[in-house]
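User: Hello, can you help with two protein structures?

Assistant: Certainly.
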Amino acid sequence: MGLSFSTWRAGGYANAAVPRPADPATLQQLGGETMGTTWSLRFDNPRMLPLAQVRGAVESALAVVIAQMSHWEPESDISRFNRAQAGSHHVLPAEFATVMRCAFRWAAASGGAIDPTVGPLVGCWGFGPDAAQEALPDEAALAEARGRVGWSRIAFDEAEGSLLQPGGTTLDLSGIAKGFAVDHGIDALRALGIADALFEIGGELRGIGHRPGGQPWQVLVDGDPSGARRVALADMAIATSGDRWHRRSHEGRHWSHTIDPRTGEPVAHALAGVTVLHTECMQADALATVLTVLGPEEGFDFAQQHGIAALFVRHGDPAPQPKTTRAWPAAPGT
């Protein structure tokens, strides 16, 4: 039995690892705060590297992501791009360019269900650093925001890793950057020679290697009326997206933070949440957003067509059975 995170309620994980009395002294734990949420790490440390050294490596990796891609930081690379003049050319740092390639790939494949330029609409509906008041946006504000959104409006040179600001474009990579930060943290751990770890930021996790004793890292994915599903993260990552967090209400209307860039409206379907497994947390994070926007039917078909391991949970009372794609791992014993 592996490490358990007590976990997903129609989207999301608790972020505290649960140590067990039988854990060896080399199985260690760290945690902290980042990106408006928390991070946690469980890792096998047979060489007994100083915990301060491990913490420093993780926090340095996270600082790189924040400095480049946090739209909450006025002097980050993304914030400078967002306020740059029309026609300005920006060569991106390598990490930023990697995330943009992922965003463009899935924007093109999904018909714009994920869009790195969605920032104006996110703010219009009351989320993010440029959030409007909690009142419903009027049609004029929505029309203005829609006119500034569209991933095909920006010229992205994938080979050079550069962007052209067409004027008024506001990038928002919050649907991908946290997953990338998990991957970047794992890279920093590997650079220290740590080969066995489970790293998490705000509910997105990636496991490398295994626990002491050879068992894989495991998480519990809740949302199944018959009980939680245990998933092994053997060199795999897991991410979720859903409508249970960051909600707004006004005059009897309730809406979530997930905005459909194609319509300019918050998603309003029966899908409560999606969990995605992938070898990279950045990809899992992006795909969870894509499938949430596409919804229970179109999203499921998209996942099947692209070989995506995904678990879909719908709203309902009683809760309907979760639905998994062909690529989702079979339950133990089946």
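That covers the first. Now for the second protein you mentioned:
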Amino acid sequence: MIARLKHVLWLTIPLLIIPAALALADATIPTADLKGAKDSPLLQRYQGSFIISYEQKAYDELNLPLSPLEALEPRQLDRKNNKVFQAKQAQELEGRYTRWVYLIPAGRSSLEVLRNYQEEVKAKGGEVLFECKGEACGGDPRRGLEGGGGEQSLMMHLVPPEKFTDPNFSNGSCAVTSRIQDQRYFAARLPQPGGGDAYLAVMTFAIDAGSYCKALHERVASLVILLEPKAREQKMVTVKAEEMASGIAKDGRIALYGIYFDTDKAEVKPESEPTLTQIAALLKSDPKLNLLVVGHTDNQGGFDYNVDLSRRRAQAVVQALTSGHGVAASRLKPYGVGMAAPAASNDSDQGRAKNRRVELVKQ
């Protein structure tokens, strides 16, 4: 009887495992761009390619390598115990940030695609500032964004892994987390129609995929990052305690835009202090008032990632109020809803900016 049971389990368990594994095999050859993704008018794509990963932020930063990456001395390790590399020559940029990953048609080489991008840059009146390939770029030339205990890669430098939020085993994730071959890179400057220069990082490579990403194996992809420098919008919006009280009395909540965080971070920035002071004054003026502190994000990034980020930001606000302003922790409850309750459409920079907020809700 026991032997028969073992035989049944042996036959059954693989049948349960195989469908689950197949459900994760999401990488496919695309026939259209990722929904919501679009090209920049400053730069055309390689003909026949499709956008498989896309991110755009109204304001972010980019360290643009203009020389090979070199290991830092004394030795430093990142959060995954990879040796940290940096370029001695680089340009620190801030402004409108757009990142694409394109899947190139079959039969094309990484070199061919790179040269086409460079020709496009020169045709637009731009200039190639630096170029490298393989090991000459520095770091691990076979690694994308995935892995630990080794050396950082050029791709890890261009796109910090913690900022990449595409779903596991999606086309975009498979392209950049698989091992890679024939890595090539250049940095360039592009003139902007309104004056000034935009900056471009282009990395082309062949995907060395296995397992659930095997549909993309040996296909060439291009990682393209465009940074359009511009002044940061000044939005030091301080709502007075009296206005907070009025809004809460009327609607049960008040949206605040004067609490600031760096992109993808949950540490309250010092310029948030005026708004924190007014929240503390509101609570002092009404000893019976208890509040939910609710974090909201736009729709850039995955749903679970944004919920967690908004929760951590709400917790950081509560911590700032209790430790820095003497507010009793029992009067505040942090909560994060991510992108689930937008105040405006996420289809524009203005709408996304309105959605990134902290709300006080009467308990």
